[in-house]
Each structure stands twice: as structure tokens, then as C-alpha cells.
Amino acid sequence: MYWLNTREGRFAIPNVQRDQWILVNVNRTGFFRTNYHIHNWRLLSRQLMDDHTVISPASRAALIDDVFSLATEGRLNLSVALDLTRYLESEMDYVPWKGAIVTFKYIDRMLRTTPVYGIFKDYILHQAQTVYDYVGWNNTGPHQKKLLRVMILQQMCAYGHERCIDKTKDLFRNFSNGHEIPPDYRSFAYSTRVASGGPEIWDSTWDSYKASSPAEAKHWLAALTATGEPWLINRLLSRTLDPEQLTLTDAVSVFQYVSRNPIGGFLAWNFFRDQWNLLKNRYGSGLFLMGNIITAVTEWFNTQYQLEELETFMSSKHEDLENLAGFSNFLQAVDKTKANINWMENNYGQIEEWLENWKRENS
Q1: What is the mean pLDDT of residues 162-177?
Q2: Which domains does the chain show, CATH number per domain?
């Protein structure tokens, strides 16, 4: 134990051999991140591959969080962070998987229009296959296992796992015969049904949304944005302009959900620009409404071209933005886009090489 009560300190750890790893801030007791020499990161990765249970679940989650945060800041090569996730194929605990999936969401957003996005999805599906088999579909067990089950099933179905999609279809067949879909499953089950269905499924989902209670309606609304049909997404976006179709808060949610769809980001941004005057009149006076829309339609921007599009739009609407409630969100969007561009410049080449190597190793 060493009490670091100043900004800097130096101490020696005796009797540590070169092939022995060191773990600092066990169980994330302190509110700080920990970086290691590259050799120690590799030793920790090797230990996790050999027997991850030697390190506690809380510390495993902290390692994942730290290594990706440090890589994002440019303090580590992203390949070091990705190497550490290789052990996840044996991970059966909720806490580390929660940290990993939160991290993967940002990478997913950055990669979704790049040539390696398909390999990235294959990697996640591969790593989660064992835990998918472990959690199963029976809605039973301890609380953390239930949380893990819902999270893994949602991830696997979203990335196109065939058995996951088939099981979801079974849920709806049973639902038609009077069986209830477990409440914990509804969010991803509804979305998976729309993503794998056609216009008829979309229309019936809209009807369910309109007929449901507010608590249930949010699941149906999110599901409507999961379609892979651009015209259906545009149909839903157009309904955000009609107060008879969507409430203000639900309309904002549509922009947030649509922008998370790999094909929806472009559609939401184009719709936002094309319908600016109508959107400004409907949402511009709300304290958070317009700001949340601006954040949603721009959070995935990560190219110089998209930055120029954003800045050009802001310049063309300068008079409109002066008194707009969400003006600060435009400024934040510019900063966020620049940060995303920086991430891509520093990390895309590394992650592309890493994923291509993984694909060759597993083909």
C-alpha cells in the first residue's frame, strides 16, 4: 500500500520480476486512471487470456476503461487496448462486459461507414459467443446475470447473430399465441423484429406505438428507427413535424434513435438541414429540445468534410442561431467533430491493421 497524497510521488515495489505484472488501484478504489509501461500492459493481457479470474471483475472492468481512455487520449496505441479485449471470449461477468460494450459503442460510431466495420462486428460477435451461450434465453437467475443476459442478447441481435434473431422471432410467434414477452427483452426484441422485417412489420409497430402506454411506447418508438429501409426512416422523420403524430419529446427521441442507426445518421442530418425552418419553429424555443436534436444528428461526425458541412450550415443560418436555445450545442458539435476527426487520424490505421490481422488469424 502506498498513500499518494501529493501530485507526484515515487516509490519502489520490491521483488518484482520482469515477467510479473503489476496492478495498481485494485477494484478502482481511487478516482484516477492508471497507465503502465507497454510491457506491463502485455503481461496483464496475457494473464487475462491465461486465467482472467485471478483479477477481480471490478479490476477487469477498470482495466478496460483505463486502457481505452488512455488510447483515446493518445497515450497508448489502440492496438494495446484491443489486445486486452481478446480475453472477453472467456468473460462471464456483467461488470467487465458492461465496460467493454460502452467502449465498443464509441468505436462502432466511428467505424460504421468505414471498410472494416463488418470485421469489427464479426469480432464482437466472436468474442461474445461464449457468454451468449452461457446466459441463454430463460429469464431467470441472479440480478447481475439477468442484466448481462439482456445486454448480450441486445448486442448479438443488433449485430445480426442469426440464432439471436430467430429466437426473437420465436418470442413474437409465442406472443401471437398469448404468451408475454418478458419486459426486460422488449427493447431489443421490438427493434430486432423491425430490423429483420419489412414495411408491414413497420406499420404494425407504428400502430402498437400509438396504442401503447407511455412506458411501453418508448420501446416501440425506438424499434421504428431500427429498420434498414431509408424511406421508412424518412417517413418517421417527417412525422416529427406533425404534433398530431408525435409529441415534442418523442420527436426528439426519434432523432436520437435514428442517428444511432448506421444508415440513419446521414438521413437525420439531411432532414435536419432540409427542414430547418420548420424544426426551428417547433423546437427552437425549448430549453433542451433543439439542443438534443443538434447533438443527436452530429455526434457521429468524424471527417473534415462533415466538419465543413456543419460549419457552412452554421454560417448560413447565423441570424437564426443568435437567439436559438440550442446554439451552444452547435459549438459543442464543432468541438466534438474535431475530437472525432483527431481520433480517426490517430487510431483508424491501427484498428484497421489490428482487425485485418484478427480476420486472417480466424479465417
Answers
A1: 91
A2: 225-352 (1.25.50.20)
